[in-house]
Amino acid sequence: MPEPLPDTLMASQRQVAAARDAAARSVARARARRRLVPPLAVGSAVLIGAGAAGAWVDAGMTSASTATSVVSAAPAPGSARGATAGTGADEAASAAADLARARQELAQSETAIAALGTLRAPSGPAPAAGSAAGSAAPAAGAPVASVPPLAPLPSVQLPAPAVHATTGASHVVP
Amino acid sequence: MSSPDLLEGCTSGTARHMATDVTIRLVGRDDARALSVVAAALQEFGDVEAACTRFDPASPLMRANANPFGWCAVPKRCFDAVSEAHRAYQETGGRFDPRVLGDLVAMGYRATLPFSGGPVVAEEAVVRRRLALPPWRPQFRVRAGTFAVRLGGLPIDLGGIGKGLAVRWAADLLAAAGADVLIEAGGDCMARGHAPGGGPWHVGVEDPAGDVTPVAVLGLSDLAATTSSTRVRHWTAAGRSVHHLVDPRTGLPGGRGMRSVTVVGPDPAMAEVWSKTLFLAGRHAVATEAEQHGIAACWVADDGVASFSTAIEPYVLWRRS
């Protein structure tokens, strides 16, 4: 009967499997972003005309922050965990590299969106890099062009209909 | 003023009673029977005036007034009129009270005044507030076809209900002659049935300021319209401007802020009673009073603005903006 594997080796195998799963998820997310971000950038140009680009950019910034936090959850290359298993560390390093490339592409897309935001207000100041959310949305409290109120229509009094009799003060006959 | 074209096809009769012109129009009937009924209805006004006027010392009412604590035999018309006045007193909670004759006489309205001849100044007039009156408890007796009243201590004036009663009784006579009748008695109107050509009778509500354009035009069928107004019956007494609509609670002219009140209702006598009662309520209470009692009323205040109660809205065909 073969000897059971030592506990440390079992724990190490479990850690490698967990790291591999996490890396696989991160790669999948990076690939999805590479597919979706360019079309979204073009779509945002359309939404700018309808005034919805600012809200979308805000949502995009939120998802970017979320993606960053998810990415940071993956084990960093050279960490104590990754060093314990050889093949798991190599895979984690590869996933981290994919994630880094995805992050760089996302940043480029955000720059493109910010540039598109300048088309909405050509007479206004050029938006600063990374401030797409601020330039795409209208400033709070900015005056909105208002339609001048219509002049009131003159009231028309229809003439009184003819009457058969009148009720009123008693007519005194001398 | 009525339009002659609208009244084409009517048999009409006019007579002078109660110091005013009374006109009766019967639609679609020009036979002798119809003319006879119209004449009888006009005479009804004369009979009521003869029995109930306070301007003739010999009238049955004035004989009863001369002995307000004792029994006095009166014609049935006078008996019915006093009885109806008491019923109106009860229905209005005392706000209609004919025991204001003494107040009117004190203010100089002891005889017919020349209201149509310009400003009137009454001589030897006193305008003084008095205490509220005690409850009115007249008594009535019918024995072997004779009628008697005991007025309960104070003389009465039936001017606030007499004309409305005459219109009611005249309309009852005319009911036998035809369904479509219009009675116009010095500002009090009774519209039975439909106008010539169909549809309701059109009755204008006079502008108390004297403008020829009415305040409103009402469409009436089987309804009366009566107005209490100070446009005509006002005069100067003891240096003060007074009018004939006396508040029984004070003995002084009432209806602060009011120019006129028009009431629409099925009975011309009660319409007249409520027109005076609402007038005396004054500008700030008239709307509440009208709504509380469900009275169809239109009133004009001192500022010339006309207002309408909820109940009168279905009858308003036109109103001045």
Q: How would you sum up this structure in a few lines?
A:
The complex is a heterodimer of chains A (174) and B (321). Chain A is mostly helical and 174 residues long.
Q: What is the averaged pLDDT score of chain B?
A: 94
Radius of gyration of chain B: 19 Å
- How many strands appear in the DSSP assignment of chain A? 1
CATH topology of the largest domain in chain B: T-fold
The SSE string of chain B, one letter per element, is EEHHEHHEEEHEEEEEEEEHHEEE
Main pleated sheet of chain A: none
Content-based structural category of chain A: mainly alpha
Side-by-side strand order of the widest sheet of chain B? 1-2-7-8-11-14-15-16
Terminal Cα span of chain A: 142 Å
H/E topology pattern of chain A: HHHHE
Task: Look at the structure and give the mean pLDDT of chain A.
Answer: 64
Approximately how much beta-strand content do the residues of chain B carry? 25-35%
General shape of chain B: globular
Oligomer: heterodimer
Largest sheet of chain B, described in full?
Answer: 8 strands, antiparallel
- Proportion of residues in helical segments of chain B: 25-40%
* Low-confidence sequence ranges of chain B: none
Q: Percent range for helical residues of chain A?
A: 55-70%
Write the layout of secondary structure elements.
The complex is a heterodimer of chains A (174) and B (321).
Chain A lengths: L6 H44 L2 H21 L12 H32 L14 H5 L28 E3 L7
Chain B lengths: L9 E8 L2 E8 L4 H21 L7 H7 L5 E3 L1 H16 L9 H6 L14 E2 L16 E5 L2 E5 L11 H14 L5 E5 L2 E5 L8 E5 L10 E5 L2 E7 L4 E4 L2 E4 L14 E8 L2 H14 L4 H7 L3 E6 L4 E3 L7 E4 L2
Parallel strand pairs in B: 4-12
Antiparallel strand pairs in B: 1-2, 2-7, 3-6, 5-6, 7-8, 8-11, 9-10, 10-17, 11-14, 12-13, 14-15, 15-16
What does this structure look like?
The complex is a heterodimer of chains A (174) and B (321). Helices cover 59% and strands 2% of the residues of chain A. Chain A has four helices and one strand, in the order ααααβ. In chain A, helix 1 packs parallel to helix 3 (86-117). Residues 61-86 and 122-139 of chain A have low confidence and may be disordered. Chain A has one domain (7-136). Chain A starts with 6 loop residues before the first helix and ends in a 7-residue tail after the last strand. With 321 residues, chain B is α+β, with helices and mostly antiparallel strands. Chain B has two domains: 7-53 and 161-319, ApbE-like domains (T-fold); 60-150, T-fold (Orthogonal Bundle). Chain B has helices spanning 32-52, 60-66, 76-91, 101-106, 162-175, 268-281, 286-292; strands at 10-17, 20-27, 72-74, 121-122, 139-143, 146-150, 181-185, 188-192, 201-205, 216-220, 223-229, 234-237, 240-243, 258-265, 296-301, 306-308, 316-319. In chain B, a hairpin with a 2-residue loop joins strand 7 (181-185) and strand 8.
